[in-house]
Amino acid sequence: MPPSGTRTVATDREERRLGFRLTLPTQVLILFIAVFPLLMQLYISLTDWSPLEGTGWWRAYELWNGFANYTDLLGDSRLWGALWRTFVVMLVCVPAEFLLGLGLAVLFMDDFPGKRVFYSILLMPMMVVPAVAGYMFFMLFQSGGPVNGILSGLTGLDVTIAWLSDPTLALVAVMIADIWQWTPLMFLILLAGLVGVPEDQLKAATLLGASWGQRFVTIMLPRIRTVLIIALAIRVIESFKIFDTLYIMTGGGPGVATETISVYIYKVTTQDLIWGYVAAIALVILIALSVLTVLAMKRMAAAGGRA
Amino acid sequence: MRRSLPFELFRYAMIALALALTLIPILWMASMAFKPIAEWSASGADLTWWPKAPTLDNFRYIFGEQTTALIATLDRTATKPILASLLAAVFGTLIAMSAGTAAAYGLSRFGSGQNLPLALTQLRLFPPMAVMIPVMIMWAFLGLIDSWWGLALIYGIVTLPFAFWLMKTFFDEMPKEIEEAALVEGCSRFRVFMKITLPMMRAPLASSAMFVFILNWSDYLIGLLLTTKEWVTIPVYMASLSSSMTGQLYGAKAALGLIAAIPPVILGIAIQKHLVRGLTFGALKQ
């Protein structure tokens, strides 16, 4: 833009108009995918409509049932089971990924021969298509597969555990796959944070006789607090959506043993086809997540201001 | 800093362990892709890590060749699903990058669209599962079900937040002096954007596009819900690749999995230094 002295009303108007035009397509797409669908979802959620009705969704009012879907979901034990399982997966996987990622990141803080190659290899799992990763672990956990093969080799026994058809072990297998795929993300983000820790501070602390543990807690940890929060927030939110790997590995089974919230919604959508009810569940989840998002955004904005 | 021998030994031991755990699943699938049918489900003492009789049969099989009398030829080959995944991901990336880059520039330079950061962050955080009912109804109404262009449209919208945030951080960092010089020369604002800014941003544009492409290529759920037969994507096709007639087609699926896994891994390594920026929405840079 021209030096402020020569700024004219015309340039101002030109810029405002161009800015509006440039942001317009995105605004339209947001309206198209968020605002209109949410209103539709709200409407359908107040009815008993299903695609099997043979009438268009706009005529769903003929099947109006008020808030029945919302009261139904309170007593839906399968839904609560799925929600609980999602939280179990989250509570095991996110801390595991975090600790493993942090451990690796600490090892990669300074230079050593082979660092770049090892770094690239360790990041690979997060780039593998999740559905393909699901298939990899499906093969690994077959009763005649390599996991049992390795266990047999280590124990000297003939191990033939049917991982994916045991309710508890299936959940364990699914969590192992998630940890395999997403530990690299924690490693990547945490390492980016740790690299920013000023070396002279660490050196000074070392000269003053601080042990490695002390340096870690007093210098590194506070410096990477923002990074920690961001990394954890991303994984918490993503693990709530867990679907691809899990669905390929177990399809939510055996029974409902690995049925998480996304798998549950998928099944009710495509098999039971009670869309009015699904819309109600989806809306409740969206509202809950929106509140969390706004809180997290504030946190991130505050953190960004400091950095 | 700390370079004691025990520490170095410990470091290499831990890294070796991490590398092994990282690579075993990938290598197992890669090795399976080259195993003949007799070795697919070998187990116990017969468990083979490396194919004893390596073959390209699995690749030939998924593209429709009769490779063994043991399993019937596929009536639907992998060619069309690969094409579907490619078209949907490429055009989805184009949509996301065009809209996202324009909006990012509008916000970065002129402060337009102040609502976009929050709106797009929410869009990125929503589980796709939770908005799929209206999307399925809308897509059916618009005749977009089971088409690569219908998928491209939803992919473009789902990955728009990433394109927007990546490009916004790049525009924010770009020095404004060159643009200002061109303005003094008398170029219009829009011409400056098209003729000066965008060409200067070629590298960031390419990295962002690759990042967005990886995300689009990785989708499974949306393809599962919005395609049925003609234009199923690779993961959807792969999951349907076994039947009661054939049983698990381990080798064939592994071959297809390998084909699906290679492009994002290569692109991901190429844009390694921008991964943190993309994943954290620019809150962090490497």
TrEMBL record, chain B:
InterPro entries: BP-dep_ABC_trans_perm (IPR050901), MetI-like (IPR000515), MetI-like_sf (IPR035906). One of its GO terms (cellular component) is plasma membrane. Residues 82-271 form the ABC transmembrane type-1 domain. SUPFAM superfamilies: MetI-like. PANTHER family: INNER MEMBRANE ABC TRANSPORTER PERMEASE PROTEIN YCJP, MALTOSE TRANSPORT SYSTEM PERMEASE-RELATED. Belongs to the binding-protein-dependent transport system permease family. This is Multiple sugar transport system permease protein. It comes from Prosthecomicrobium pneumaticum.
